[in-house]
């Protein structure tokens, strides 16, 4: 079956490339293949430094544990639709490491690993090179659409990708429909995949269970969303890693007014259940619930978000992935705090507050931000023989500065800097005490620059 899948993808891409050369012979239309084709490219620089409290030190010495810098470029070709029906999307990127930490426990996720795929990973450093992140044929007819090849999920399901400057890549297919309703829009989609690669690898890999040997033959997900013309929306989705894990998702959004400022409030539920009792990472239904509210009006933006987690079992935390290993796939999570920790340990409650302010009324200019996260009642994994009454607290401050510089009539170079100060109440390494998702105390700084390149 999987060999046939590979042949089908190759055939679709071959036909798409052949059509690209032949369409010029046909009479073009307003929505033709060439007329609607878009080519975009960016040159990117990224640098990260991290200092952590060494868990083995007697006097809590600060130790430099990460120093990475990378230069990368990507090009994205999104075609129009031939005969208003068929199209082809291609994405390529290249990367070159400038500095790298010695003995890092993970590859530079903004670059390329020395190994081609996750199953070969030996953490031996990074390398210069190039790869694809998208090569997919696409089809549409009326309200229906479909995509096949090496692609990213676009619909309402539970699968997502890891990110560097570009997204990760699934080998698979996706189909959906968008149906206008009297007072809104109903959207539904289905996604299926048998292989995946994170953006720091160059070759897709099969999915594996927690033992690292047993194969998961496919992941798939079905989702739907209804949004009315007053910005109320309801979403639901189901996903499965074949024979291994099921996931569920529900989200409702509604507009609210707070002191005459329009805002959007959401309730979100992410849940997972292991299908195998042996080697199960969750002992029962695991979940993460969230309540969020936020607004952007003029120069001011703000968010307040709260989460609660239940994830009893040997893993000790909730993950949106359907597969266990980091970088083996990724799952949908509409909450992202960029504050070093994921704040997702069993029993943990977290509160995030963030504010941004733009100092210019134009597209270009300076934007500053500050955010704080406080979490409590984090419990250790059930597989660790320590008292379950033990708990930890976590706290993070994030400071950010962003600047947009106009470099063309419709192009802007983006500069982003953020500093994260992360602390927890652990004595030594939390991971040695059963908190496998909680990092060491740290200070981290990240600088990124993105320069758009012009194509005729």
From TrEMBL:
<keyword id="KW-0732">Signal</keyword>
<dbReference type="GO" id="GO:0015288">
    <property type="term" value="F:porin activity"/>
</dbReference>
<dbReference type="GO" id="GO:0016020">
    <property type="term" value="C:membrane"/>
</dbReference>
<dbReference type="InterPro" id="IPR005318">
    <property type="entry name" value="OM_porin_bac"/>
</dbReference>
<comment type="similarity">
    <text>Belongs to the outer membrane porin (Opr) (TC 1.B.25) family.</text>
</comment>
<keyword id="KW-0813">Transport</keyword>
<protein>
    <recommendedName>
        <fullName>Outer membrane porin, OprD family</fullName>
    </recommendedName>
</protein>
<dbReference type="GO" id="GO:0015772">
    <property type="term" value="P:oligosaccharide transport"/>
</dbReference>
<dbReference type="InterPro" id="IPR023614">
    <property type="entry name" value="Porin_dom_sf"/>
</dbReference>
